[in-house]
Amino acid sequence: MKKLFIITFILFTTLAKAQDKKMEKEEGIDREEMPEDAFFLIDKIPQKANRLRYYYQTDGEEESYETKFKFKRSIFSVEFGKDGKLEDVEVILKEKQLPKQTLQNIQTYLEKNHERHKLEKIQAQYLPNSVSESSAEKLFLKSLSFDTQQPDNYEIIVAVKNKGKLKKFEMLFDKNGQFKNEREIIRNSYDYLIF
């Protein structure tokens, strides 16, 4: 019985640690391959948007679809579940676009927890508060005016160095810059292949 407990504990610990890692794979797809229910929002992308692209992504466990485009000099990402329901809208930001106190809170957290760090990518994240199409549409339209709307979270890609080891994390901070969670980004070996 004791051996079974130890084996179960080791297995549980290993699985818990594996969930804190991000091994995402993304590939471009045609518009027709997007879930049909996603078009209620995709069709609302402004006509003036450009570089409109469609993607399928998986992290080995979850699958999703994404539409990316550029609008008003900003890059947007609209993510849908396999069923076509909106999961989130993200807008790439520059450091100077973050509220000063929010950026200061993020920097303070990183300085306390890592020897060195570099912010590589910052995204304002807007989350749907219900599954209805009308609230998803409101969220989408709200994200298009991100310069005047407070996001729900900030998703940040951060390169860190601790004890001589370099790692990259996807970190989530709330709208005030308070740390919520992180996942280490693991590059697949095929990312390094040169053809």
Q: Determine the mean pLDDT.
A: 82
Report the helical percentage: 10-25%
Question: Given the C-alpha coordinates, what overall shape results?
Answer: globular
Beta strand count: 10
The radius of gyration computed from the alpha-carbon positions, rounded to a whole number of angstroms, is 19 Å
Number of DSSP helical runs: 4
Write down the secondary-structure element order: HEEHEEEEHEHEEE
Structural class: alpha+beta
Question: Strand share of the residues?
Answer: 35-45%
Describe the sheet with the most strands.
10 strands, mixed
Strands ordered across the widest β-sheet? 1-10-9-8-7-6-5-4-3-2
Stretches where pLDDT is under 50 for at least 5 consecutive residues are 1-19, 189-195
Q: In angstroms, what separates the terminal alpha carbons?
A: 52 Å
Kindly describe this structure:
The structure is a single chain. With 195 residues, the protein is of the alpha+beta class. It has four helices and ten strands. The N and C termini lie far apart (52 Å). 18% of the residues are buried. Mean pLDDT is 82; it is low at 1-19 and 189-195.
List the SSEs and their pairings:
Blueprint: H1 2-18, E1 21-22, E2 25-29, H2 39-42, E3 50-58, E4 63-71, E5 74-81, E6 86-93, H3 100-113, E7 116-126, H4 133-144, E8 153-162, E9 165-174, E10 179-185
Parallel strand pairs: 1-10
Antiparallel strand pairs: 2-3, 3-4, 4-5, 5-6, 6-7, 7-8, 8-9, 9-10
